[in-house]
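Quick check before the chapter quiz. The format below is the same one you will see on the exam, so make sure you can read both the input and the output lines.
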Amino acid sequence: MEFTARQIAEHTDGTVEGNPEARVRTFAKIEEGVEGALSFYYDPKFEPYVYQTLSSVVLVPKAFQPAQPVKATLVRVDDPRMAIGKLLSLYESMKPKRTGVDPQAYVAPSAQIGKDVYIGPFAVVEDNAIVGDGTALHPHAVVSAGASVGSDCILYAGATVYHDCRVGDRCILHAGAVVGADGFGFAPSAEGYEKIPQIGIAVLEDDVELGANSCVDRATMGATIIRRGVKIDNLVQIGHNVEVGSHTVLCAQVGIAGSTKIGEWCTLTGQVGVAGHLTVADRTILGAQSGVPGNIRKPGQTLMGYPAIEAKQWARCAATYKSLPEMAAQVRELQKEIEALKLKIGN
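Here is the expected output.
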């Protein structure tokens, strides 16, 4: 597949500066550019590569003013990152899709399979399960009894949708992802822990992406719900009866305990932990390794630390941590001086 700079500009609402017939057939990072590649520039620290790159076409911001001559053809766009994403999606959509059921797959007679579906070797679709049009189940993917997966989804190797759970349209489940495993429910007794049956389901709405080896547990009763457009990184744990608001992003190793509600357009960065039965307001940003033991009711805050506090305040606190040993030593010295003064005054 080849594209000209003119075609790229038309698809991204950009303008060409240079040869409009310059052709690209692949993508490359600007620092690793080769002839025939399309690259993009948005971060000023990478500006030297704009002049050095061998890429044939480079997407740049409309306001970019070169300080040196540029060999590549430039396509000026509003947002190079968004434009490259749009082009990558176009490129991906043009790849031929596999269809059909592999002879080594198992599809139950009562299952409903849509048009142009691909079911790879050792994939399983159980009784009364539904798989929508254009969906791909890669090797060892499982859609369990009574579960449904919408149209144009991708379930990569080993992804599993448990019984009765629901996955919307255009969802992506990466390798080892699990939708609908039992919630972590146990009642302590004299003999140990009695398992509490988890009779609810888990629901992924449309356009959700679930990273490799991430888990969305089924509800004890009712449903665990991941709303439309949520993007979940690898190794994320979502507890039972959690609700994650639309377009929220959960980065690697985030853990959300049961019955917590996360708002819309939130960002939880790496290793954030959220306790159970809480509410996190819309558009909250939580910095890496933050801990949330209580409700966050004010929307639009950026918080860090444990317990999570306003990011600037946390930064001031963090700056003092490295001085704590010296401060402690000074306090001990001051205590000695105070005791000496007390003795002197008493005498």
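If your answer matched, good. The first strand starts at residue 3 and ends at 4.
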